Amino acid sequence: MDTFKIKAVLAAAEEGSLSRAAEKFSYTPSAFSHMLSSFEDELGVRIFQRSSRGVTLTEEGKRIYPELVSIAESEQRMLRTVRQALETQRYTLRIGTYSSISRSFLSELIKRFSEEHPNIKLYITVADDLTGWLEQDKADIVFADGGTLEKGEWIPLAEDRCLAIAPPALLGGRTEITREELYALPFLRMDEKCMEGYFEADRFLRPIHLHSDDDLSVIHMVKQGFGIAVLPELVLRGNTEGLSVLSLSPPLSRTVGFAYKKHAGSIFPALSQFIRYVKEQTPRALAKV
Questions:
Q1: The domain that contains 220 carries what CATH number?
Q2: pLDDT tens digits for 29-63?
Q3: Which helix (H) or strand (E) holds 230?
Q4: Of 87, 111, 145, which closes a domain?
Q5: Of 286 and 15, more confident
């Protein structure tokens, strides 16, 4: 049932005149009258008695009038509920991020954004595996590396080089190590996407297979002398005391950035504001780390 026609019926009944009601809807009187007649035909009853003095409700019209009012009011309540839900969504933002990105620059950036936009409520989740978070609608925006953020609108922010860490006694005061040398040394092998294609797995002579979602535990194992590990620089920032840190030859890096998912083909205001802020402020934030 066309609620627009219902509103037209209610206006005609309120005004008692087709011409005055037609003006409210920017219709000509004849077109407005034709619309009401088609609605009456659809219902199978005559709602109005027409005369030279205007229109009045018929007995059938009087009986269905309260139902038409109820339908119109119900539509208005539904629209208000939808608007309220959209307003809540527009000013609520769910952020997923790696701990390394959060520790290095994102925390300060989010803090300043929150201070400048107190009307936006933020929900932040720090996790080591963010695969599928956008597809599963767990977050509106996810900060990670390009290997994790395979879907969504991907925006790269910076290159995060990978470095080797080792107990000082193992490599002395060296500042660089080659990939070939790593094959012959005790090496903590991890399932890092940024390393895919860089190492040939079957060439390690003394591999230690390690599965850990806690980067700090990997660093601790290296400090205890288990072997050498390769980790992104953002992971290592502030955590290399008592370790030798070496650049890799050839170099290896991961691209860090963020991805977001458009909802119904668009970006809601809170997300749009945050994306703009991140793009503007990230170079400055990275310069401080």
A1: 3.40.190.10
A2: 898 889 889 888 988 999 999 988 889 999 999 99
A3: strand 229-232
A4: 87
A5: 15
Answer yes or no: do 78 and 119 share one domain: no
Residue 191 and residue 63 share a domain: no
On whether both 144 and 176 belong to a single domain, the answer is no
> Domain boundary residue among 48, 70, 87?
87
**pLDDT, tens digit (0-9, with 9 covering 90-100), for 270-279:** 888 899 999 8
β 187-189/48-51 pair status = unpaired
Q: Is the overall model pTM greater than 0.70, yes or no?
A: no
Q: What is the pLDDT of residue 46?
A: 93
Torsion-angle region of residue 44: left (phi > 0), alpha (psi -120 to 50) or beta?
Answer: left
Domain ranges, residue 57: 3-87
User: Is 103 found in the same domain as 82?
Assistant: no
**Alpha carbon distance 246, 267 (integer Å):** 42
Residue 102 CB neighbours (<10 A): 20
8 to each of 3, 20, 23, 116, how far by Cα in Å?
A: 9, 11, 11, 46
How many domains, the chain?
3
Q: Nearest 10 degrees: CA dihedral of 39, 45, 51, 53? A: -70
- 170 and 250 together in one domain: yes
Summarize pLDDT for 143-183 with one digit per residue, the tens.
Answer: 988 776 666 688 888 899 999 999 988 887 889 999 999 99
Residues 256 and 101: beta-carbon distance below 8 Å: yes
**237: which DSSP letter?**
T
